[in-house]
Amino acid sequence: MNAKKQLALFGGPPVRDRLFPRYNPIGAEEKDAAVRVVESGVLSQFMGSWCDGFNGGPEVRSLEQEWLTQFGSRHAVAVNSASSALVCALGAAGVGPGDEVIVTPFSMCISATAPLFWGAIPVFADVEPRHFCLDPDSVESKVTPRTRAILAVDIFGHPCDFVRLRQIADRHGLLLIEDASQAPLAHLNGKRAGTLGDIGVFSLNCHKHIHCGEGGVAVSDDDSLAERMRLIRNHAEAVAGPKGETNLVNLVGHNMRMTEIEAAIAREQLKKLPGLVEKRRENCARTVDRLTRIPAISFGGLRPGASHSFYLLPLLFDAQEAGCPRDRFLEAVKAELRPTQGREKEGVKLYGGYVKPIYMLPIFQQRIALGKNGFPFSLAPQVDYSPGICPVVEDLHSNGIFCHDLMHAAMSAQDLDDVCTAFDKVWELRRHL
Which of 9, 18, 227, 259 has its CA 20 to 30 A from that of 42? Predict the structure, then answer.
């Protein structure tokens, strides 16, 4: 075989011999903001007592106000991570031992484990086969008299079907929490992701569209929910008396406070968010146009009225059409490419599947979480975590979906074309796989 027509997997020359650019939206503005805080000598201004400093310092408060301006909510609560924000949200909702929370199996694990911190039981619903968000039909089938909330994730940057989820929540008197960590500036019917439920959560973790290292923001239009999140964020039990708080449910002390340095960096990042998201959309449009010319690859599209912010680019693979398994095909594509700068040890960032369904984690399979006696699972022996409970997500993970981040805002047109050319080459030579 001509060497140029041989797959790199079998010794042929790869499509690309240089590293992909690193995604790093941090620049001089963030450095100057951090220096400003360091020179002030005040790295955090939170106080765990009922006083002016209870809600943090000027950088944290300014970030919260600027977040409201960008996203259009009534309240914003900055915390040290989106994980903390989800725990705050469920605590503010009054979720407690034995309550059930309907969650997705297809996300970072905290999107499903957050209820456990309050002794509540995660109940998994299946996902949509083309948008990968919670399937409303599956959600409704999981509602019981013990259900208190739905925690829906805008996975990969695509908003859930909040029209139907809102109807379900209202019909059953449930709180609707939106994990929009991967979907800043996505829209559904003119409203921004994160503002589509009773509480929305955003992430400022280092892998997200914008970041300050670690951090998160929760938003809500509900005065009571927002105030209870502020209390849970900062040693609630210590201030409940001086504040005159009479509803003590879930007012257990935490330190989920964001530092002034993180907030200052996040403020500068927030200014860049629209441009970074738009660049991702442009890059994904170019990539989808090329890759979906391959008969075995398709894009799930957008639900009516929705826009996408593309944390990752998710695509569907038809092994029957290709005549080879998804993972073997992707192995060959990765051999044609090179890793990303600064992440060389991780290999090419192209994933077959996404995450194993969360209920397959040992914590659910062995039903051990808090203490050695199975709490809180012991309160709900009827809840099932067996393989097969969510067939759509299991098939997607094992066979159907693949995704990658080789479309982020630092990728040039040539970088994108190299990725697509690698797919084209493997498709042309797939008979050798």
Answer: 227
The one-letter code for the residue type at 12 is G
What does the alpha-carbon distance between residue 395 and residue 105 come to, in Å, rounded to a whole number? 12
Give a yes or no: residue 328 inside a domain: no
- Amino acid residing at 387: P
Residue 247 lies in a domain: yes
Q: What is the CA radius of gyration of the chain?
A: 23
Domain-embedded: residue 420: no
pTM value surpassing 0.85:
yes
- Residue 211 sits in a domain whose CATH number is 3.40.640.10
| CA separation for the pair 176, 391 (Å, rounded) | 24
What residue type is 169 in one-letter code?
A: A
Using CA atoms, how far apart are residues 74 and 131, in angstroms rounded to an integer? 29
Here the tokens at position 16 are 């690309």
* C-alpha span between 267 and 29 (Å, rounded): 10
Phi, psi of 59, deg, nearest 5: -70, -45
Contact call for residues 89 and 118 (beta carbons, < 8 A): no
Find all residues with CB under 8 Å of 330, minimum gap 6, and list them: 350, 352, 402
Q: Which two tokens stand for residue 88?
A: 């705050």
The answer as to whether 414 is a domain residue is no
Cα–chain center distance at 60: 22
Tell me how far apart the alpha carbons of residues 86 and 93 are, in angstroms, rounded to a whole number.
11
Residue 288, H or E segment: helix 260-291
Cβ atoms of residues 186 and 193 within 8 Å: yes
Is residue 73 within 8 A of residue 191, CB to CB? The reply is no
Q: Average pLDDT, whole number, for the chain? A: 96
Q: How far apart are CA 336 and CA 15, in angstroms?
A: 5
Say how far apart CA 147 and CA 423 lie, in whole Å: 45
**Count of residues in the chain:** 433
User: Is residue 87 within 8 Å of 117, Cβ to Cβ?
Assistant: yes
- Phi and psi torsions of 266, nearest 5°: -60, -35
State the total domains in the chain. Answer: 1
Cα–Cα distance, 258 to 216 (Å, whole number): 8
Structure tokens at 53: 């400093």
pLDDT tens-digit map of 155-208: 999 999 999 999 999 999 999 999 999 999 999 999 999 999 999 999 999 999
